[in-house]
Design goal:
Strand content: 15-25%
CATH architecture of the largest domain: Alpha-Beta Barrel
Shape: globular
CATH superfamily of the largest domain: MutM-like, N-terminal
Strand order of the largest sheet: 2-3-4-8-9
Order of helices and strands: HEHEEEEEEEEHHHHHEE
Length: 321
DNA sequence: CATGACGCCTGTCAGC
DNA sequence: TGCTGACAGGCGTCAT
């Protein structure tokens, strides 16, 4: 049911958040920091106290993203506030003066009290039910390929710890041919490669299934057995699906409210595969099925996405029969 | 280096 | 009613 269901943020959702932050908190100075849950800053090396100390007084000067990683550059050169939303993270911007009596969100983990350049107070809350997400203040390093790019900043720097993440499919500096080669050098199933954030980033379980459905490729097709045009078609499908979701989900940010859960792109545009077990395939009418792959659900059309012939020896697998 | 399994977390829901 | 286990699942870590 909508409202309580989980909507895991993938690239379009994170980009929508980044865009909202760019429009609502840039130029703000951090007046105060409250860490309500230490675990939510576990990636910050110096611990919660140091996390707050490093942020106090800093000005947020840019909002950038690569894949599902999001960061706010600080006016302290070479430092950034890194955020990953994990499975349930939200960044909520509000005006604390608008409704002083409003109760805090149940899953509030970190609060930043901000002051805008004109002196107006503003609040940035990190809310995260399942706490797979995190915030951290980290240094920035040059991108491995030396090229600018990414979304929201044309700077050639990324936070330390994000350098290993590949450019995403919406990044104009992405070398698609190189990604095709890298994917085809793998022996794993194509879905595993799609989810590998070091090859190309931003694709999660939901958009992976949608891309494979669209490209009519089974999730367990071996990467090194796919022809280059097939790999390219899968990547193109992933880009298309995410672009469409972004177009739909990105329209809900006129309010002073940055929300990854409220009007998520993939729910607004509708899904063709993910979560549709038992329902007819929109293309051929066959029943969509759910299977377990990599310990997570995979939804596919068994007719449009035929299973590859036998793969390697099923040594440790449960030979479900 | 490539590959794949595991655990971290909280909340919901089906089944007993 | 209350307990238990399955499920959701990104990603860092570890073993092979």
């Amino acid at each position: 049911m909508p409202g309580s269901g989980t909507r895991v943020p993938e690239l379009p959702e994170v980009e929508t958040v980044r865009d909202g932050l760019a429009r609502h908190v840039l130029g703000a100075r951090v007046a105060d920091v409250t860490v309500l849950r230490d675990y939510s800053v576990r990636r910050h090396e110096g611990g919660p106290v140091d996390f707050a100390a490093r942020l106090r007084g800093a000005v947020l000067v840019a909002a950038a993203r690569r894949g599902k990683y999001l960061w706010l550059e600080l006016d302290h050169p070479g430092e950034a506030l890194l955020a990953h939303l994990g499975m349930s993270g939200q960044l909520l911007v509000s005006d604390p003066a608008a409704d002083p009596g409003a109760p805090d969100h149940r899953h509030l983990r970190v609060r930043l009290d901000l002051v805008m350049p004109d002196g107006a107070p503003r609040r940035l809350d990190f809310v995260d039910q399942r706490t797979f997400g995190y915030l951290a203040v980290v240094g920035t390093v040059p991108t491995p390929d030396g090229a600018p790019g990414g979304s929201g900043s044309l700077r050639a720097e990324v936070p330390d710890g994000v350098a290993h993440v590949g450019r995403d499919l919406l990044d104009p500096a992405l070398d698609v041919d190189a990604v095709v080669r890298a994917v085809r050098s793998r022996r794993s199933g194509i879905k595993r490669a799609l989810l590998d954030q070091t090859l190309t980033s931003g694709v999660g379980n939901i958009y992976a299934d949608e891309a494979l459905w669209r490209a009519q490729v089974h999730y367990d097709r071996r990467c090194d057995a796919l022809r280059p045009p097939q790999v390219r078609a899968v990547l193109d499908a992933a880009r298309t699906v995410m672009t469409e979701a972004l177009a739909v989900g990105g329209t809900s940010f006129d309010a002073l409210y940055v929300n990854v859960n409220g009007e998520s792109g993939y729910f607004a545009r509708g899904l063709n595969a993910y979560g549709r077990a038992g329902q007819p395939c929109a293309r051929c009418g066959a029943e969509i099925v759910r299977e377990v792959f990599m310990n997570r659900s995979s939804y596919l059309c068994p007719v449009c996405q035929p299973r590859p012939r036998a793969r390697r020896s099923p040594r440790a697998g449960t030979a479900a029969g």
